[in-house]
Amino acid sequence: MANATTKTYQIAQDLPTPDSQRMTTTQPQSWKAKLAEKIPPQMADEIDTFENQMVLRCQGKIEDKVFAELRLRRGAYGQRYDNGFRHDGEKTQEIAFPHPELTKGPETKWEAPGMQRIKIPYGGLSAEQMEVLADIAEEYSDSILHITTRQDIQLHFLSLEDTPDMHRRLAAVGITVREACGNSVRNVTACPLAGVCRDEAFDVTGYANETANYFLGHRDVQDFGRKFKIAFSGCAQHPCGLTYMHDLGLIAKKRQREGQEEIGFELYVGGGLGAVPHLAKLFDDFVPPEELLPLSQAIARVYARLGEKKNRNKARIKFLVQKLGIDEFRRLVLEERATLENDPEWTQWLQAIPQYSETGRPEPVTAGQVIDLGEDAEAFAQWKATNIYVQRQPGFACVTLNLPLGDLTAQQMRGLADVARRFTPDATRTTVEQNLLLRWVHEPDLPALYLALKALRLHTPGAQTIADVTACPGTDTCKLGIASSRGLAGELRQRLAHKGYQYDEALKDIRVKVSGCFNSCSQHTVAEIGFYGSNRLIDRHRVPHLHLILGGEWSNNAAHYGQSLGVIPTKRVPEVVDFLIDLYLQGKNQGETFSQFVNRIGKKDIKERVQPFTHVPSYAEDPSFYTDWGDAREYTIGDIGIGECAGEVVSLTNFDVARAESLNFEATLLLDGGDMNGNVQQAADKALAAMVKAAQAVLKAQNVDIADDAAVIIRDFRRYFYDTELFFDPFVKGKFASYLFNAYDNRQAPASFDRARQAVEEARLFIEAAYECHSRMMQAGINSPGAFTQWYETRVPVS
Amino acid sequence: MDVERFYLKFFARENAIDETGFIPIFHDWIRLKSLPGTLIDVADYRHVPDGPGIMLISFEINYAMEHGGGQFGLSAQRKLGSDGSHSERIVELAKRTALFGSLLEADSRLNGALTLDGGRFLYAANDRLRLPNTADAFAALQPDLQAAAATLYGDQPFTVKRVENDPRERLTALVETSGPVPIAALAG
Ligand code: HEM
Ligand code: SF4
To answer: Which helix (H) or strand (E) holds A190?
Structure first.
């Protein structure tokens, strides 16, 4: 069967035959050709590189571990069962992919469906972007768009083969997937009300977006031991920014100085959830905008240098801050800051900030019309009571779309693009509660808007109430999932809404969040009622359970984390939620919030009261306890795999050598058509560039800040790798290094076809030698600039 | 026409049925390998209004008992190419879908609650590059659909009509015969 999933593989096998043209621009009908004008060159280049790396992976030229991280840095995650095995309730069966030998990561089948995370900085979406997202969800995925707890969008069940085209279609509307996963700066989030909030110090939108732009692909954020998450909030008291649970959190602030108002940020560092949650520490109580980027950069550099790299469980910045203490951490960062050379990009963007300001449409769309809601009047009133936020700009409101489990269909998204164009200045945002927010709606337009949303079935009331339950992907698609967070959340959502709890003022501030495991991707740690997946062995069978987490606080930027009160069988969780609600409604004091109530009663007492719900009937008595929500198989933990929160730590050298490989691969393709195709010079230049890149790659072990300048690279490579014989091959000694020197010395000479072909061959050998050299160094423990310096002083031969 | 990704949908006669019942059935089919192809997993989208309902994901095809466009039915979306011309691929997917549908109709756990109409189906091109939603693309596609319908319905007269929809949506056509056709009759 000629199946598309093996296309890249075919190309990889067939190279360099003429039908390998898929990788070049000659194929007439391709998104690459069609969108060439619309994609910024840098983005186009990145996508081509990734496509080439896919071919190289199929040829076995990129290690699967390295490829996995390359793929993750383009947001392409693995998904449950992608090791080719699935438990069917009775036994584990192999999933018979046609080419099981092909992998896209360690024990990850090339052909297995995967997930794509799409970065949406500060959650800002235009109607045009919404349309493209709808198209790609329909064409490549299961027609569902999922909003995540960090304002991203995810698609599931994708074929890796479709990713380059998908990335191109996104790039054509200004969306990059770069660094959506992996050990790098993840999506920069911001309060979705920024700019319209009644309580903010100032609009953080532009600051968030410009910070995202600055760090995207920045050299100082490529060598982290783990991911790095940044969040902006407009004020301290509301939860929207969740700054306390972020690696770097910024809260907008104003102050008076010598009669002048100044704006700046409170800067927090070292927060995070996960298995070991930490609240962020105050680093500086006022950072002026012009210091925002340099200071953040200095933090990134200290983290890259001193953060844990080997043990990924200790690698988030929170562990470094904890280990050093905030004072010592601050001292090191300020020291680093002082050494940074001035970068004009630190402040250039400040001029762009005014462009982020928005205004509503001049007139309501329905001005002068009478909208008769008829029998919808009551539903409209309920919706209005829960889904509307009145903006600080008089006459305008924000409308939250309550998306069930963060999901909407491609058709709904397309329809919503129309609604956004019709009623708003095209300013939609995703929210961390897995919803969408329409801003700048004229209040008189609300009835008409309601009807438009109703036509799309996006008019569910109860947004951000107890019935608007958040869930991580869990066992549905996540490899680490222990329990079905989505299955449970779907059930809870239905039951709570059925009881009308979303309209109960007393329950207004309770959030329910469910994670499939302790990694906390649903942010359950900061929910008033949180759950995370676990399991127990009972009656010789596994039973899905959830830890009950109480005491968390969503407001005040997630200032309090909840604690576990022990586990509950998942099938009893809806009863427990009902019980807790009753307990609170009956026992609360006037004005007491749920968290305050929990603290007053005490977790010990509540735990005792919840105890009866922990009982699990025997298998014979009630087998339903032994199956998870939304599933029919008997529960097992056999499918839990190795997560890809961020792949493994892959050294900077590995990355750059992979980049060198793809440059040389491009050179190979340029020579494909023979000597008449006019690409000969370009091919020779690329081959040289590939060697320079590989040399730079090995130099990173000596100096992470090695410049991009070829002359500097050649000079340092000669000094540290050639003169020291470190790069020498055991047999041919300095031969491979001399390829680089010669090609560089002769770079001005016009290339003939044969010369170019030879250059490509030499580059291939040079890149191989770079890999070898890197492995020898790793074995000898030369794995950091410090270790390099030590070695350099003694120069013990490395073999 | 060389299109690998496209979608077919057969409608159910009834509009409401407890979809939860599909979940154990699809899990069993995966376990027992009841259908051709590489079956992978079940996806539960009951919570999404007018959404994909319950899906059975395979390597080649996403099957769904879904509510797209507010109409309940069985859809199948081919994700990658199979042998043959586009019209042969349409026939092949229609037969696979019909096999799926007839197995489901016959499953005793549904107590005969489901009947799928084999006499009408939607086709949607799921590739805006090769088959954009335009009159020209429909003209190019029509012969493939005609040929496929002729193979599926034999002597029975049928029509192939373009569905008027939003230009941003997929190029969609409705293939319809005059008489009723049990879904099982197409599966052969
Ligand atoms: C060891 C592996 C993982 C860890 C430690 C981890 C941890 C976390 C944490 C703590 C958050 C929450 C909020 C935050 O800090 O911003 C988060 C967000 C999230 N995680 Fe994970 N996670 C892991 C793997 C995964 C995997 C494998 C998936 C699914 C394929 C996943 C899906 C999500 C989603 C959808 C979010 C929302 C975030 C976003 O859009 O960036 N996580 N993760
Ligand atoms: S919390 Fe666990 S199960 Fe849920 S997405 Fe994160 S890693 Fe997966």
So the answer is: strand A189-190
Label each residue of A408-460 as H, E or C. Answer: EEHHHHHHHHHHHHHHCCCCEEECCCCCEEEEEEEHHHHHHHHHHHHHCCCCC
Please tell me the least confidently modeled range out of A360-369, A403-412, A439-448: A360-369
Residue A493 CA to ligand 2 centre (angstroms): 19
Pocket around ligand 1 at a 6 A CB cut-off: A 77, 115, 148-150, 152, 154, 186-187, 229, 245, 272-274, 472-473, 478-480, 519-521, 523, 643-645
Q: Which of A89, A144, A633 is opposite residue B45, by nearest beta carbon?
A: A144
Instruction: Give the neighbor-by-neighbor strand order of the sheet with B172-177.
Output: B39-45, B53-58, B61-66, B73-78, B6-12, B116-125, B172-177, B158-162
Determine the 3-state secondary structure of A281 from DSSP.
Answer: strand
The residue contributing the CA closest to ligand 1 atom 37 is A149
SS3 for B82-121 is: CCCCHHHHHHHHHHHHHHHHHHHHHCHHHCCCCCEEEEEE
For the question of an ipTM over 0.95, the answer is: yes
A667: CB partners within 8 A, 6+ apart: A682, A683, A684, A686, A687, A690, A756, A759, A760, A763
B1 in any annotated domain: no
Nearest ligand to the C-alpha atom of residue A312 = 1
Instruction: Give residue-wise pLDDT tens across range A154-185.
Output: 999 999 999 999 999 999 999 999 998 888 99
Residue B48 lies in a domain: yes
Residues of B in contact with A81 (CB under 8 A): 40-41
Helix or strand holding residue A80 (H, E) = none
Residue A45, both tokens = 């280049």
CA distance B63 to B75: 6
What's the total number of domains in chain B? 1
Please indicate, yes or no, if residue B53 is contained in any of the structural domains: yes
d(CA A448, CA A441): 11
Kindly indicate the confidence band of residue A557, based on its pLDDT and cuts at 50, 70 and 90. Answer: low
What is Dmax (Cα atoms) for chain B?
46
Ligand that lies nearest to the alpha carbon of residue A644, given by its number in the listed order: 1
Q: Which residue has the tokens 């933990």?
A: A637
In the DSSP assignment, the letter for residue A199 is: S
* Averaged confidence pLDDT in chain A: 90
Question: How far is Cα A458 from Cα A256, in angstroms, rounded to an integer?
Answer: 44
Whether residue A564 is predicted with pLDDT greater than 90 in this model: the reply is: no
pLDDT one-digit tens code per residue, B41-94: 999 999 999 999 999 999 999 999 999 999 999 999 999 877 889 999 999 999
Alpha helices in A456-571 (DSSP H): 474-477, 485-498, 555-558
Answer yes or no: do B44 and A486 touch at CB < 8 A: yes
pLDDT score recorded for residue A2: 40
Q: Which residues of B touch A5 (CB under 8 A)?
A: 59, 80
Query: Strand A230-233 and strand A189-190: pairing?
Result: parallel
Tell me what the mean pLDDT of segment A191-196 comes to.
96
Q: Is residue B75 part of a domain?
A: yes
Nearest chain B CA: its distance from A288 CA (Å): 45
d(CA A406, CA A431): 9
With beta carbons less than 8 A apart as the criterion, state whether A226 and A250 touch.
no
Percentage of the residues of chain A whose pLDDT score is greater than 70: 95
Residue among A223, A595, A192 at smallest CA distance from A428: A192
Distance (Å, whole) CA A228 – CA A182: 9
> Exposure of A706 by Cβ count < 10 A (0-12 exposed, 13-18 middle, 19+ buried)?
buried
pTM comes to 0.88
**Parent domain of B165:** 6-181
Q: A274 CA distance to ligand 1 centroid (A)?
A: 8
Residues found in chain A: 799
Mean pLDDT over A317-325 rounds to 91
